[in-house]
Amino acid sequence: MSADPLISVRSLSKHFRTFERREGIVGGLINLFHREYRIVKAVDNITFSIGRGDMVGYIGPNGAGKSTTIKMLTGILVPTSGEILSNGFVPWRQRAAYVKTIGVVFGQRTQLWWDIAVIESFKLLRRIYDVSQRDFDERMELFDQVLGLRAFLHTPVRKLSLGQRMRCDLAAALLHNPPILFLDEPTIGLDVVAKDHIRQFLRAINERYKTTVLLTTHDLDDIEQLCRRIMIIDRGALLYDGPLAGLKERLLRTKQIKFILRDGEQAPRLAAFEHSLSASAQNGLLHLERLDEMTCRLRFDRSSVSTSDLIRRILAAVEVRDFVIEDEPIEEIVKRIYSGEVFAAPPGPQP
Fold first, then answer.
1. Of 21, 44, 292, 325, which is least packed with CB atoms within 10 Å of its CB?
2. CATH topology of domain 7-249
3. DSSP 79-147
4. Sorting pLDDT into bands at 50, 70 and 90, what band is 193?
5. Is the entire prediction scored with pTM above 0.85?
6. What pLDDT was estimated at residue 145?
């Protein structure tokens, strides 16, 4: 992260006052004269900084506070307390000037005009953001190269598929080349091919223009393919802020060795090896599964079993053509965090 961050958030909170409704006719009558309220802490005292050109993943379960944070960072919501300085602006105080320096994509909403052709929406946005014709043509060429927009530029937005519309929304958000891009679930509901288009585009924009990206998503493939840094929020509190590799290191329980047998004659030797594993395994620390006739995967607790010892045992037991050592999938790590297995003490922002 740069010494002079592009986005600086300090002790940010957003609390909502909600009305507790009573049930039934009697409850409705009581509500008319006596109302009870409770405070919901959607975002509770979070602090972080994001440097120019960073791509940061911001994840958490539903209701964790991700979208509320994005709405404060874009100036849509006013915080209950705390400070935000984004690209030199206080978003909710200087919103008219600030929004010209950011791009925003909400996965379920569009900023394009529903009944006119995509290219006409782009031309209107060019005038709104005062983009020169030369810059407009250059960016449209890049957008077409990476996103393949040309095929549906003259199609009304309402006739686009979800994947096509999301590609157009991304292009629209970046037409004025903003230094900051906020993405709230940009790949939600998309198929594998459409997601790949989106990810390629974001990498290209980040490399070419050093665009800073804050990405909220439930798709952890987005995080692994795009972001080196990750922030995890739950119940409004920031649980982790640091490298994705650091998260795996702190919470990684298991590793797995996938190996391919040399030939079918290894089957009896594999059966004997599996029996020896069952005899030596304690509390399920070793688990061998057959993926197909020739491929096996051995899962083990890395804190209790030595990887090098296991490899030696495999090679001594059977002849293999290839093997690979893999970490536990990030989905499993985040699943445990969401289920309540959090850190012993909330860590502060990582450099």
1. 292
2. Rossmann fold (3.40.50)
3. -SEEEEEETTB-TTTSHHHHGGGEEEEETT---S-TTSBHHHHHHHHHHHTT--HHHHHHHHHHHHHHH
4. confident
5. no
6. 87
